[in-house]
Design a protein that fits this description.
The protein is an alpha/beta fold and 229 residues long. It has one domain: NAD(P)-binding Rossmann-like Domain (Rossmann fold), CATH 3.40.50. 43% of the residues lie in helices and 13% in strands. An 8-stranded mixed beta sheet has the order 3-2-1-4-5-6-7-8, with helices on both faces. The longest helix has 26 residues. The radius of gyration is 16 Å and the shape is globular. It starts with a strand and ends with a strand. The model has no long low-confidence stretch (mean pLDDT 95).
Length: 229
């Protein structure tokens, strides 16, 4: 049984990831920025027979992350998997009219949030012996697929991919594997109803990376296969 923390898990891909992992018997920690929504998601899953721990956290806030650190220390003392799923998509399609503050806010959540959590939770991950860090990225952040529009989101996901590669190299000696995942265009609040993939498909590669024996390190993946950066 692994101890697995998923950020931004009160809805969408994060919540589905919790659902699938808990069904496999792993100990999951559901987190989200809004405490009420976190409790509601925990209750809704319990109504399905899925039991998960929960702790609200704002990945942008040092004090909130410090509370999460104490929560994990008190209850578990270690962490096997960190899924950096929390993210925002705030900007519009016209790069020429981009609001710098929106780009800054997007970067704070999508890049600095995961970086902050990796840094603060690393002592717990080092106690695992088989730790994994999974960063939820997007093909929109891959330079090989880069197009125009949505600059805040695109730039943030490109930077998150850089975070993945840096930590994958720096933590290899600790036997901590770090990967990025593009879940595809998924029917979530962010993806919208026109999206082409169901939420369980979006979570599939994340769950595989969290639980499988032979996984890669420092890769960008979609559907369990490496894709170009």
């Amino acid at each position: 049984m692994k101890v697995i923390l998923v950020t931004g898990a009160n809805r969408g891909i994060g919540r589905e990831t919790i659902r699938q992992l808990a069904r496999q018997g792993h100990k999951t920690i559901l987190t989200g920025r809004n405490a009420e929504r976190v409790r509601q998601a925990q209750d809704d899953l319990a109504a399905e027979g899925i039991i998960t721990d929960a702790c609200p956290v704002d990945v942008r806030d040092d004090n909130s992350v410090a509370h999460l650190v104490r929560f994990i220390a008190d209850r578990y003392g270690k962490l096997d998997v960190l899924v950096n799923n929390a993210g925002v998509f705030l900007d519009g399609s016209d790069s020429a009219k981009a609001d710098i503050e929106i780009i800054r806010d997007t970067f704070d959540t999508n890049v600095l949030g995961p970086y902050r959590l990796i840094e603060k939770l690393l002592p717990f991950l080092k106690k695992s012996g088989d730790a994994r860090i999974i960063n939820i990225s997007s093909g929109m952040g891959g330079l090989s697929e880069m197009n125009g529009g949505y600059p805040g989101y695109r730039i943030s996901k490109t930077a998150l991919n850089a975070v993945t590669r840096i930590f994958a190299n720096d933590l290899a000696a600790e036997k901590i594997r770090v990967n990025s995942v593009c879940p595809g265009w998924v029917k979530t609040d962010m993806g919208g109803e026109r999206a082409t993939r169901e939420v369980d498909q979006g979570a599939e590669t994340v769950v595989w990376l969290a639980t499988a024996d032979n996984i890669p390190n420092g890769k960008f993946l979609r559907d369990k296969k490496e894709i170009p950066w």
